[in-house]
Design brief:
Blueprint (H helix, E strand, L loop, with lengths): L4 E7 L2 E8 L7 E6 L5 H8 L12 E2 L2 H9 L11 E7 L17 E6 L4 E3 L14 H27 L4 E9 L2 H16 L5 E7 L18 H4 L5
Parallel strand pairs: 3-8, 8-9
Antiparallel strand pairs: 1-2, 2-9, 4-7, 5-6, 6-7
Helix pairs in contact: 2-4
């Protein structure tokens, strides 16, 4: 499978975004799918009315290599409880199920998948009085419902990616090096999995002069322009 178009588009004060277009077909249903590296993409897709469903990489922190390994293995360790370790209480991150609710303010456990390096920040709620020592108990209590949720998202992702009648736009935020990794590693992987009719919309950290702030939603990015929404 080859890359048909690489488009550089200037956006306000941001130098460019990069769109790698694969199997581009006009006039089809289009869905936006977060593809790492954090949950700001899912939040902004929903905020701008472009979100149709939940997918496995929506509300986690990830790396392109972790996602690659996960897809290579057909997600076999994504919901393997033996691969999870609890890190700490993540007080700044709300609990999120299928939809983000501004009204839900809940402390969560930062759970890490040690196989893929995924950080779950929105999936495991805890009581405010929970001590660091009882985080594992909270994880155990909520793991079954979390697994069921992610199994649904994984099945949906694979089904949609193999459906040639649906155009997919996968959005990835990451370092500049991720662009070449998408081209050299992820595209061939997708071909081997029979994924079709998709685009990568890559947003590089460097060009956006990304700085770490407490605002995990990345509201400073020009999302309306990224989604080609007319003001």
């Amino acid at each position: 499978m080859c890359v048909n178009i690489i488009l550089y588009k200037k956006i306000e004060n941001f130098p460019y975004i990069i769109i790698i277009i694969i199997n581009y077909i006009k006039f089809m249903e289009t869905i936006y799918i977060p593809f790492g590296s954090d949950c700001s993409i899912a939040y902004q897709i929903e905020k701008h009315g472009k979100r149709n469903a939940s997918y496995p990489f929506d509300w986690i922190k990830s790396t392109i290599k972790g996602i690659e390994k996960c897809i290579e293995e057909d997600f076999k360790n994504f919901t393997n409880k033996n691969c999870f370790v609890s890190k700490n209480v993540s007080g700044n991150f709300p609990l999120v199920n299928d939809r983000y609710d501004e009204g839900i303010i809940t402390n969560t456990i930062r759970m890490v998948n040690t196989i893929y390096g995924f950080h779950h920040l929105h999936d495991f709620p805890i009581d405010q009085n929970t001590s660091e020592g009882s985080l594992a108990e909270c994880m155990e209590k909520n793991f079954i419902s979390c697994k069921e949720k992610y199994d649904r998202r994984i099945n949906r992702f694979v089904e949609v990616m193999k459906n040639c009648n649906i155009k997919k736009i996968l959005i990835h935020i990451g370092p500049e090096s991720d662009k070449s990794y998408l081209e050299s590693n992820i595209i061939p992987l997708f071909e081997s999995k029979s994924y079709s009719n998709y685009e990568f919309l890559f947003i590089p950290y460097k060009e956006f002069e990304m700085v770490r702030t407490s605002d995990w939603t990345r509201n400073e990015y020009p999302w309306a322009n990224i989604f080609f929404i007319k003001k």
